[in-house]
Every structure is written in C-alpha cells, then in structure tokens.
Amino acid sequence: MVHILPQTKSAAVNPLKSSQPLGAALAFLGVDRAIPLFHGSQGCTSFALVLFVRHFKEAIPLQTTAIDEVAAILGGMDHLEEAILNLKTRTNPKLIGVCTTALVETRGEDFARDLAKIKLLRAKELKGTEIVLANTPDFDGAIEEGWATAVTAMIQRITLRGEQARQSKKIVILPGWNLTVADIEHLREIVESFGLKPVILPDISGSLDGTVPDDRWVPTTYGGTRFDDIQELGTAVQCIAIGEHMRRPAELLQTQTGVPYALFHSLTGLKGADRFVSLLSAISRAPVPANIRRHRAQLQDALLDGHFHFGGKKIAIAAEPDQLYQLATFFTGMGAEIAAAVTTTGTSKILEEMPAESLQVGDLGDVEGLAAGADLLVTHSHGRQAAERLGIPLMRVGFPIFDRLGSQHKLSILYQGTRDLIFDVANIFQANQRAPRPESLDPFRKREMPR
C-alpha cells in the first residue's frame, strides 16, 4: 500500500499545482456561448488568462469582477452584479460561469444568496442567460477539484430533474480535466463508430481546438457542449465518467435523473481500453468495429516492441492525482519503476491505488529532491529547469505546456493513444541513452593478473 506523505513546507518552491478557479474556468470554456467570470481581483484573472493563452495559443474569453480594496472589505455583490450585466449587454452569452477566488471566499460572503438576489432583481435584463456558481477558493484543492466543481454545478443548475424518456443510443461522457482536445475528439469518434450519440460535458474539443469563425468575431466560447444538451442529460441511457474526480458529478446526475454511471480511473492502457470498448458494445448491442480491432492489434504490437525500452527505467512523475494515476499505471505496466511521485493534494481516493511505495504531496521542488537517479521526469513545462539540473529528459504532460506546440493535439487514451504514448516515451529513452563504457562491458578489464 502506498504511503502518502503530507505537505510540510510553509511555502511552495516552484509550484506544481494550478488553482481551483482555473480548473472551473477551463470547464466552463467547454460549453458553447459561455464566459467564465472570476469573482476576485484583476490580478487573479490576469494570471489565469496568461496561463490559458500560453497553453492553448488561443484567445480566451475570461472576465473578472475586478474587486478592489474597498469591495474586499465591504463586500463584492455590487461588483458581481455590474460585471454580469456588462457581460450580458456586450456579449449576450448563454452561460456565465462564476468562479470564486480566495479573495472573496476568505471574507465569507454568501455568493448563492447574492446571485439569487441579482437574478430576481435583474430578471428582465438577464433573460436568456444562465448563471452558474462554482465555489472554488484558491487556498483549497487544485485544478481537478475546480473542474469537477464546475461540472457538478452545471448539472445541478441546468440539467432537468426527474426520470425522463430515455434515448437508447444516447450516452453522457464526463471527461476528466486531463484529457486533451485530441483525447475528447477520439472519444467521440469511437463512441459514434458503435452507432451511439455522445454528449460530452465539458467539450473543450469544440471550443479550444483552434477553430475560429470565418466571418465574425465571437466574444464568447465558440463550440463546446450546447446548453440544450446539458438540460437533457437525463434522457441518456448511460453516463461514463473518466477520472476519480468526476465521480461526484456522475453521482449527482444519477441522483437527479436516474441515469446510471460507470467510472473509469484511466483509459490509458490495454485493460482500460478493453473495458471501455466492451461497455460500448454492450450498450449498442453491436460488435466491435473492424478498425477498432485493428487498433487493438497495433497496440499489442507496440507493447511488444516498446517494453524493451521501459524495463528497469526509473520514472519521476509530478501531476494532479488522476493524471498521476493514469501515467504511473502506464509506466509500471510497461515494466518501469516509479522512483518519485509528487501530487498536488492528498484528498483524492485514487491516491490509495497508486503503484508506488510512497507519494509526496508537494511541489516541483519536492520532486527535484526525490528524482536523483531517475531516467525521466514527467510533468508540465514548469519542470524544465528541474530536469535540466537533474540532467534527465523531460516529458511534458498536463497543464500548462507553453514551450512546445501541439500539446492539445496529442492522443494518450484508448488503443491509438496508448500506442502513440509508448512510441513517444521509447523514443525519448533512445534519444537520451548513453553509450556503454568499456569497463561496463568487461568487468574483468582491470583485474590484477596472477604473478
């Protein structure tokens, strides 16, 4: 059983985690005609906006209530109301996702009451726009908790309650925050190949994939999950949640509508992919398509080709809990050893399943201290200096990745994604292998000759 070591430092050295509000904003960005609104200072929003723009290389419609020092003391309801009305007047979004920050959460305001009052007093002006509140203080949790909180809030606020007539071919997919644009697009293609209709919430593949309208500027998100589809989630026959942090929204959907859910901790690797494909086949009552069978055969061949390069390698990973589990199980399944594992929070139940002797809740300073002698460092772009000091290669995963292009179009799930991941990592190992020294090849080279 893994031994989880709590954070003991009073300050972060080279921080690993991104904040809850950022995760919630990312989830809201996966909804069509939406705008995330940070309820906090301009600095909080500016920092998140910089990370989003550098990672996605896109224009991000992120707004702020711009709380100043007076509102921080007396209360920020007036700023929240003004920001919402301005967004409605200027951009007419279908959804405004309010993400609270530490500045206003520390004061202990009743945001739900404030929003209810704003909606009541401004019902005429706000007609046609839904407002969803996600309580996401920076001082608690990290990006995956913020993502899950926003998805839960959208289901609770928007999805129609009660048992509804089910559509036999409709399924709901609740992807984890760590799935890329390519991952989500691939999920949709696989589901549709079984004749099923997927509704993905949130769907960043439609809003953050680089697509822009040809003839006009759109001040909200362009693409993503449609508002009407969120309302009608209860008409699906099955919900599939990916990642332990998506258990809560899946349970809420089941409680509100009766839609059953299946939870996948990871879709990377042969076992998880097989279970996912088998579930789709059972729901659709159709055989697995020939192209998917071929992709599975290709993965089997990649497993044979690649395991020579993974055997005995020591890996250091620093990531959010669910992504850490996804990567750690992948590497150990290929024969590598987890030499160091660092994550952002110790509350996730998935940490108990981690294939490592010990797990540190901490930052990139911690992983640098634990990764001496490792063959590969796996984390986001902020780990590049640590990798350089350690003298080992860096495999960039997660958020943010700002010093490489195309990170959102890398596939890492199901048969094709696992195959590509094997090749990417094996190529890193081959590119960084050291030529053997003569004494390592001949242990008797310097032996003393008898006289």
TrEMBL record:
InterPro entries in the cross-refs: ChlB/BchB/BchZ, Nase/OxRdtase_comp1, Nase_comp1_CS, Nase_Mo-Fe_CF
Record NCBIfam families: nifN
Pathway stated in the Swiss-Prot or TrEMBL entry: Cofactor biosynthesis; Fe-Mo cofactor biosynthesis
PROSITE patterns (UniProt xref): NITROGENASE_1_1
GO process terms (BP): protein-containing complex assembly
SUPFAM superfamilies: Helical backbone' metal receptor
PANTHER family referenced in this protein's UniProt entry, alphabetically: LIGHT-INDEPENDENT PROTOCHLOROPHYLLIDE REDUCTASE SUBUNIT B (PTHR33712:SF7)
Record keywords: Nitrogen fixation, Plasmid
Transmembrane segments: none
Function: This protein may play a role in the biosynthesis of the prosthetic group of nitrogenase (FeMo cofactor).
Similarity comment text for this entry: Belongs to the NifD/NifK/NifE/NifN family.
Name of the protein described by the UniProt record: Nitrogenase iron-molybdenum cofactor biosynthesis protein NifN
Residue span(s) of domain Nitrogenase/oxidoreductase component: 19-429
Any one GO molecular function term: nitrogenase activity
Organism: Rhizobium gallicum bv. gallicum R602sp
